[in-house]
C-alpha cells in the first residue's frame, strides 16, 4: 500500500457536482493498493498514521498526533499512486491491484482506520471520477509505502 498523506485545514470530495464528504482539520489520505498488499499492510499503515506526530504543539513543534488533536480523516482511493513510469511517457498501471482485491482492502483500511481513530473516517467513492479540494496546512505532505517499513 502506498499513501500520500496531507495535513489539511479542510478537505472535500465532490462527485457529479455533489459534495460526498468534507472534513475540517486533519488528514487527506490518497491510498494506492498493489496486487501483493494484505491485511498486514493495513494494520501497519493504520498504526503509522495514527501515531504520526505532525501537528504542532503549544511551542509550534510537530509533536502531536491526529489522536491528540481530535482531527478528522478523509480517504480517497488513488490507483495512479501505483504507476510504473520507467518506459516511455505513458504510465502503466500493472502494479495496481485488480478490483476484486483492491475494493475489500480499501474498505478494510477505512474500517480499521475508523476503529483506531474512534470515529468515522470520511471517504470518496471507489472508482468514481472525483474532484478533491484541500487546504494543505504547512504544507505538510508525506509519502508512505508499506514496502519500505524499515
From TrEMBL:
Subcellular location: Cytoplasm
EC number assigned by the record: 3.1.1.96, 3.1.1.-
Entry GO MF terms: D-tyrosyl-tRNA(Tyr) deacylase activity; Gly-tRNA(Ala) deacylase activity; Ser(Gly)-tRNA(Ala) hydrolase activity; tRNA binding
Reactions this protein catalyses: a D-aminoacyl-tRNA + H2O = a tRNA + a D-alpha-amino acid + H(+); glycyl-tRNA(Ala) + H2O = tRNA(Ala) + glycine + H(+)
Pfam families referenced in this protein's UniProt entry, alphabetically: Tyr_Deacylase (PF02580)
InterPro entries to which the protein is assigned, alphabetical: Daa-tRNA_deacyls_DTD, DTD-like_sf
UniProt-listed GO biological process terms: D-amino acid catabolic process
Residue window of motif Gly-cisPro motif, important for rejection of L-amino acids: 138-139
Highest taxon in the source lineage: Bacteria
Record has Nucleus as a keyword: no
Keyword presence, RNA-binding: yes
Main location as per UniProt: cytoplasm
Entry keyword set: Cytoplasm, Hydrolase, RNA-binding, tRNA-binding
GO cellular component, one term: cytoplasm
SUPFAM superfamilies recorded: DTD-like
HAMAP family registered for this protein in UniProt: Deacylase_Dtd
Family annotation (PANTHER family): D-AMINOACYL-TRNA DEACYLASE 1 (PTHR10472:SF5), D-TYROSYL-TRNA TYR DEACYLASE (PTHR10472)
UniProt comment concerning the protein's domains: A Gly-cisPro motif from one monomer fits into the active site of the other monomer to allow specific chiral rejection of L-amino acids.
Primary role: An aminoacyl-tRNA editing enzyme that deacylates mischarged D-aminoacyl-tRNAs. Also deacylates mischarged glycyl-tRNA(Ala), protecting cells against glycine mischarging by AlaRS. Acts via tRNA-based rather than protein-based catalysis; rejects L-amino acids rather than detecting D-amino acids in the active site. By recycling D-aminoacyl-tRNA to D-amino acids and free tRNA molecules, this enzyme counteracts the toxicity associated with the formation of D-aminoacyl-tRNA entities in vivo and helps enforce protein L-homochirality.
Subunit structure: Homodimer.
Record-stated family: Belongs to the DTD family.
Name of the protein in question: D-aminoacyl-tRNA deacylase
Organism whose genome encodes this protein: Prevotella multiformis DSM 16608
Lineage: Bacteria, Pseudomonadati, Bacteroidota, Bacteroidia, Bacteroidales
Gene name in the database record: dtd
Amino acid at each position: 500500500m502506498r499513501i500520500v498523506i496531507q495535513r489539511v485545514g479542510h478537505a472535500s470530495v465532490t462527485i457529479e457536482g455533489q459534495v460526498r464528504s468534507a472534513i475540517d482539520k486533519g488528514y487527506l489520505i490518497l491510498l494506492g493498493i498493489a496486487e501483493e498488499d494484505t491485511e498486514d499492510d493495513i494494520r501497519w499503515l493504520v498504526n503509522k498514521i495514527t501515531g504520526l506526530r505532525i501537528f504542532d504543539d503549544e511551542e509550534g513543534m510537530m509533536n502531536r498526533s491526529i489522536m491528540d488533536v481530535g482531527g478528522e480523516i478523509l480517504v480517497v482511493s488513488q490507483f495512479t499512486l501505483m504507476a510504473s513510469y520507467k518506459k516511455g511517457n505513458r504510465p502503466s498501471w500493472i502494479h495496481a491491484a485488480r478490483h476484486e482485491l483492491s475494493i475489500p482492502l480499501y474498505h478494510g483500511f477505512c474500517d480499521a482506520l475508523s476503529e483506531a481513530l474512534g470515529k468515522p473516517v470520511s471517504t470518496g467513492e471507489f472508482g468514481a471520477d472525483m474532484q478533491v479540494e484541500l487546504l494543505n496546512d504547512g504544507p505538510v505532505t508525506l509519502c508512505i509505502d508499506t514496502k519500505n517499513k524499515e
